[in-house]
Design a protein that fits this description.
Elements lengths: L2 E3 L9 H7 L8 E3 L7 H5 L6 H13 L5 H13 L9 E5 L2 E5 L9 H19 L3 E6 L3 H10 L5 E8 L5 H8 L6 E7 L2 H13 L1 H6 L2 E2 L6 H17 L7 E6 L4 H11 L4 E8 L4 H8 L1 E3 L19 H8 L4 H14 L1 E3 L2 H10 E5 L2 H15 L5 H12 L8 E5 L7 H8 L20 E4 L2 H15 L1
Parallel strand pairs: 4-14, 5-6, 5-8, 6-7, 7-15, 9-10, 9-14, 10-13
Antiparallel strand pairs: 1-2, 3-4, 11-12
The structure holds pyridoxal-5'-phosphate (PLP).
C-alpha cells in the first residue's frame, strides 16, 4: 500500500514513513493511493469477532508490508485490553432505530484514545526497528492533547510538546495534559486560540531545517494513522447492526473533520453507509459549506463543545482531494485561494455529488443544553455537549427510518460536567480510575503565540536532554 499527498508534490510513501511524517513535505496530507476493498463476504466475516479482532482485519491492508501481521495483532490486542469497557466501543439504543456509539472508554475519556493508544504503540514499534527517535509537536483544542500525551508518555523514543489555547480547554482536559509526570511530556499553554496553536505547529513543519533538526512528527488529526485507526469503529458498529446485510448511517460531531472522514473512508472501503451527518456547533463553517458549496472563514467563538471550536478543518483537504478528482495541483490552488481570501467554493455538480453521502446540521449552546436535558429525561443517558450535537444531528437528518442511525458519543459526560449539570441538574462523576485528577500536581509552561518563542523553547528543552 502506497500513500500520496493531497497536493501532489511530495514523494509517495509507505505506511511507516507516513506515520512518522504526519504532514507531507508539500504541505499536503497523505491518503492511500487506492482504497482497500472489503467485500460483503469480508464484512460478514467480521461478525462475531471482538473489537480488537475487527481492528486487526480492518487495519491490516493499510499497513501491509510495514508492520507484520503478528505484531499488528499483538499491538491491537494490548491497546484495547486497556479500555474501561469490554466492548471497547459499546452501542446503546436511544430512540427508534437510533443508537449511541460510546467512544469514551479510553484513558482520557474521549474518542481520540481509540486511535492514539494504538498509534503511540505503532510509533514505538517503527522507531525501535529503526533505532530512531522523534519529537512530536501537536496543537489541541483539548482532547487531542491529553490523548496524545497519554499515548506517548514514558515511551522511549518520543518527546512530545502539546500546544493548547490557554483558558479555552476544560479544567478536566487541562489537568489530563498537565498532571502527567513524565520527563518526555511538555504541555505548553499558548496565549491564543486553537487555530493559532495549529498555525504554529504547521509553521514548524514548514520550517525544513527546524523540522529536520528535531525530527518533528505529528499525532494530531492530520496524521493518516489516526484516521485509519478510526475507520475500525465504523465497521464494528455497522457489523453489530446488520452490515453488510443492511446499510447504516452515522452522525458525527465534527471539528477538524477527522472523525467523520474516517466514516467516509469506511464507505470508500466498501462499508454500506447510507448517510454521514456532519454535526457542528455555532462554529459552523462545515455546515455552511454543505448548505452552499462555499467554504468561508469566520471568527471562532467559544462554545460548550470546545473540541469543535474550529473554523479551518484540516482533514477536509482529504475529502477535497477526492472531490477534485485526485488533482493535487487543483487542491493546492484551492487551499492557497482559501488562505489568501478566506472564502472559496466548489461548483454545484461537485457539491451535489458530496451531498449524496453527506448531510449537515448545526446546534448552538442553548440547543445543546436542551438536547442533553431531553435525552436524560427520555432515556436516562447523560451525554456531553459534543455527543449531544451528534445526537441532534442524527435526529435532524434522519433519512429512511429503517436504516439504523448511529450517533457518535465522543466524550464522557464527566469531561464537561458544568454543561451536563446545567442541563440536567446532575453532576456526572469521573470514572474511578481517574477520580483523583484534581488532587494531582500540575506542570506546564506558558508561552506567547509566536513561532520564535515556541521554537526557542523546544531548542532549549532539547539541549538539556542531549
Ligand atoms: C476532537 C473531538 C471532536 C472533533 O473531532 P474531529 O476529528 O476533529 O472532527 C469532537 N468531540 C470531541 C469530544 C473531541 O475530542
Amino acid at each position: 500500500m502506497k500513500y500520496v499527498s493531497t497536493r501532489g508534490e511530495a514523494p509517495e510513501l509507505a505506511f511507516d514513513d507516513v506515520l512518522l511524517a504526519g504532514l507531507a513535505r508539500d504541505g499536503g496530507l497523505y491518503v492511500p493511493s487506492e482504497w482497500p476493498q472489503f467485500s460483503a463476504k469480508d464484512i460478514a466475516a467480521m461478525a462475531g469477532h471482538d473489537y480488537a479482532g475487527i481492528a486487526y482485519r480492518v487495519i491490516r491492508p493499510f499497513v501491509a508490508g510495514t508492520i507484520p501481521d503478528d505484531d499488528l495483532e499483538a499491538m491491537v490486542r494490548e491497546t484495547y485490553a486497556g479500555f474501561g469497557h469490554d466492548a471497547v466501543a459499546p452501542l446503546k439504543q436511544i430512540g427508534a432505530n437510533h443508537w449511541l456509539l460510546e467512544l469514551f472508554h479510553g484513558p482520557t475519556l474521549a474518542f481520540k484514545d481509540l486511535a492514539l493508544q494504538l498509534v503511540g504503540r505503532m510509533f514505538d514499534f517503527v522507531l525501535t526497528a529503526r533505532g530512531d527517535r522523534v519529537t512530536i509537536v501537536g496543537a489541541t483544542s483539548g482532547d487531542t492533547g491529553s490523548a496524545a500525551i497519554e499515548a506517548c508518555r514514558d515511551r522511549d523514543n518520543v518527546d512530545i510538546y502539546i500546544l493548547f489555547p490557554v483558558g479555552r480547554v476544560s479544567p478536566v482536559q487541562q489537568r489530563q495534559m498537565t498532571t502527567v509526570d513524565s520527563p518526555n511530556v511538555h504541555a505548553l499553554a499558548v496565549d491564543g486560540t486553537f487555530d493559532d496553536c495549529q498555525d504554529l505547529v504547521k509553521a514548524m513543519f514548514n520550517d525544513a531545517p527546524f523540522r529536520d533538526a528535531h525530527n518533528l512528527s505529528a499525532v494530531n488529526s492530520i496524521n493518516w494513522a489516526r484516521v485509519m485507526v478510526q475507520i475500525v469503529y465504523y465497521f464494528a458498529a455497522a457489523v453489530c447492526l446488520g452490515a453488510p446485510g443492511r446499510q447504516v448511517s452515522f452522525a458525527v460531531p465534527t471539528g477538524n473533520f477527522g472523525n467523520v472522514l474516517a466514516g467516509w473512508a469506511a464507505w470508500k472501503c466498501g462499508l454500506p453507509v447510507e448517510k454521514l451527518v456532519v454535526g457542528t456547533n455555532s462554529n459552523d463553517i462545515l455546515f455552511r459549506f454543505f448548505e452552499t458549496g462555499e467554504m468561508k472563514i469566520e471568527a471562532v467563538n467559544p462554545s460548550l463543545s470546545p473540541s469543535m471550536d474550529i473554523q479551518v478543518s484540516s482533514n477536509f483537504e482529504r475529502l477535497l482531494f477526492d472531490m477534485l478528482g485526485g488533482d493535487g495541483a487543483a487542491v493546492r490552488a484551492w487551499v492557497d485561494n482559501f488562505r489568501s481570501t478566506g472564502a472559496v467554493r466548489v461548483d454545484d455538480a461537485r457539491l451535489a455529488a458530496a451531498k449524496k453521502m453527506f448531510a449537515a446540521a448545526r446546534l448552538d449552546d442553548d440547543g445543546t443544553r436542551r438536547v442533553i436535558g431531553d435525552l436524560y429525561k427520555t432515556t436516562g443517558e447523560l451525554v456531553d455537549p459534543h455527543s449531544a450535537i451528534g445526537v441532534d444531528a442524527g435526529r435532524q437528518c434522519r433519512g429512511d427510518p429503517t436504516v439504523p442511525m448511529i450517533s457518535l458519543a465522543t466524550a464522557h459526560p464527566a469531561k464537561f460536567p458544568d454543561a451536563v449539570e446545567q442541563a440536567t441538574g446532575i453532576r456526572p462523576d469521573l470514572p474511578a480510575r481517574i477520580s483523583d485528577l484534581f488532587d494531582r500536581d500540575e506542570r506546564f509552561d506558558e508561552i506567547e503565540s509566536d513561532l520564535d518563542a515556541v521554537q526557542d523553547f523546544i531548542r532549549r528543552t532539547a539541549a538539556t536532554k542531549s
